[in-house]
Description:
By secondary structure, the chain is an alpha+beta fold. It contains ten helices and 21 strands.
Amino acid sequence: MDDALTLQFTKTFRGGPEIAVDLRIAMGTPGVTVLFGPSGSGKTTLLRVLAGLDRPAEGTIRFGGETWTDTARGIYVTPQHRRVGLLFQDYALFPHLTVERNIRHGLRSLPGSEAGHRVAKLLDRLKLDGLANRFPHQLSGGQKQRVALARTLAMQPRLLMLDEPLSALDAPTRETVRGELADLLRSLQIPVLLVTHDRVEALALGDGLAIMDEGRVWQHGPVEEVFRQPANENVARIVGVDTVVAGRVLHIADGMATLAVGNARLNASAASLQPDETEVFACIRAEDVILFKGSELPQASPRNRLPGVIKSLAREGPMLRIKLDCGFALAALLTRQACEELALKEGDPIVAMVKAPNVHLVPREVRHGVRD
Ligand code: ADP
Ligand code: MG
């Protein structure tokens, strides 16, 4: 039996792009697959078709050994029988029901005692104790999200889908909730599909990353691989970060973290790190990389001085994009004039400088116990 989720379908809305999805997600090791792409690219449609809320024009959807949709054979399994959970962007809580009754809503067919037991466990697990009798309007954004998650999990879904779960929250709340959500998703033993158009969320929450644009999945692979090696220019433009590289925090002192990245060491602001975080992605914009030749190097601190070699130069409008090997792959963007002044060419030894505050760290959620 094929232990994978496979989607192959087309669907067209009048006036919209043709959505033609071809995606296979292995389910042997549960984890979070992030669907990432601009607005209108078909992400919500993919979730709705997978959940059985919308029917494709033609195609198949398979979940392990089960066929949920097969238009050619006239197979269509109802949403209830797919036993999947879909968390909507706006959480869709019932405003006139308490937290407890919202969570209990889908469990009407269960005996009262069993439903009560399940709800109590979820209230505890999602830190909603004490809020059971509140109504949605009496909750913060983060609490609403936890109620919506509890309601979805109460049905014991075999697959969890979340559509932009953090987009309804304001920025400071979003960061806290992102960490809580990462912990929770990590503890689930079911595959998760999460939609976002936020790069940091994709990095922080995803194990796998599927890039969508104009109704198609252009690339699907481990998060870091997709950021590091976009399959084509379109994907590169969508992921939009020049250097994303995995690193390990070696130590933190005076608010500054020292990381091991490939064969190099990098200094970065530790502001975005929790004390116990060691695995991170370091993100560096190509514009923030300055190149020097020879020995006349400014000694200003806090800076990263990264000796390396030029691997390639490519024109990009008035600029030149330069790929470097500094013990890890680093991209720089310079004006053509600056390149001419430095007489840069392939194979040249070079020193790249990046200010520590320009190395942005994103905690990397390593899913212990789920991926192992
Ligand atoms: P995303 O979630 O990535 O923003 P959607 O899946 O919502 O994208 O939409 C993909 C395309 O399909 C868009 O062009 C959108 O306008 C169109 N679309 C989605 N749902 C409907 C609908 N119910 N009726 C008409 N067009 C739709
Ligand atoms: Mg959407």
